[in-house]
Amino acid sequence: MTKTTAGETLPGSARLSREVLARMADAAVIAVDCIHALHEQKSNLVMEALRGSDSFTEWDHYPANDARDPLSHAHYFLHAHSPEGRDRPDYAHFHTFMRVKGMPPGIRPVDVGAQTGEAGGEPMSHLVAISMTPSGMPERLFTTNRWVTAETWYRAPDVIAMLDGFVLELDEPSPLLNRWLTAMLVLFRPHIEHLLIERDAAVERWRRLHPGVDVFEDRRLDITSSLDISLHQHVAWLDSRLEACS
What we know:
By secondary structure, the protein is an alpha+beta fold. It is built from 7 helices and 7 strands, in the order E-H-H-E-E-E-E-E-H-H-H-H-E-H. The chain has one domain. A 7-stranded mixed β-sheet has the order 1-7-6-5-4-3-2. Helix 1 runs antiparallel to helix 5 and helix 4 runs antiparallel to helix 6.
C-alpha cells in the first residue's frame, strides 16, 4: 500500500491552473455549506447516510441497497468494518463508484479473468473511498484492490476520466449529503488522481513480489493507496493559492 501524509505536497499541485483552482474553491464552498447546514439541523454527514435506519450495523450498506443516480449512474454507500477488520482507526467510510452506463465512451476494463462487477451485475468502477470520523468529518481518502468491492477493474487514467461524471442529484437519503459527496470529488480531485495512479503502481509492485498469485483477488492486499486529509487545511491552501494567482 502507498500512503501519503497530509503534510506532503502532491506532485503537480503547484502547476494547477487558476481555472482548476477556482472549480475546487467553488466545490469547497458547497462542501462547507453542506456541513454547516447539517450542523444547524443537529445532524452530520454520517447521520444523513443512516437516515431511516434503526441501527448502524457493521458491514451493512447505508442507505439500504445503496444510493444510485439514474441519470449520471454515480453510486455510493456508507459502511463500517468490525474493529478487528480495520488496519487503522476508521469510524465509517463512503465508497464511491461509477456504473458502466455513466462511463465515457471507449473505456474498456482490464482483463483480470472472471471479474464481472457487483457480484455478477452491471460493471462498475470504484473511484475513491472517504473515511469519516465519529463526528461526521472526512479524515482520509483511500483506494482499494478489486476484490474489496467486487468492482470491474479499469486502469487509473480511465477511472480519472470517470470523475467528472460523478454527480448526485438525488433527494435520498439526503440532498445535502449528496451535494457534499459530489463536491468532494471536485475539491480533492488532484488528490484522488494521485491516489489512483499510486493504486495501479501498488498493484504492479505486489504482482512482481508475488508471482503466480492473482493480485486482484489476493486478500493480503486490500488498501492500495491512502491519504490523510483535513478539509480546513485544504481550504486554507486553496485560498492561499488563489491569492497567489490573482
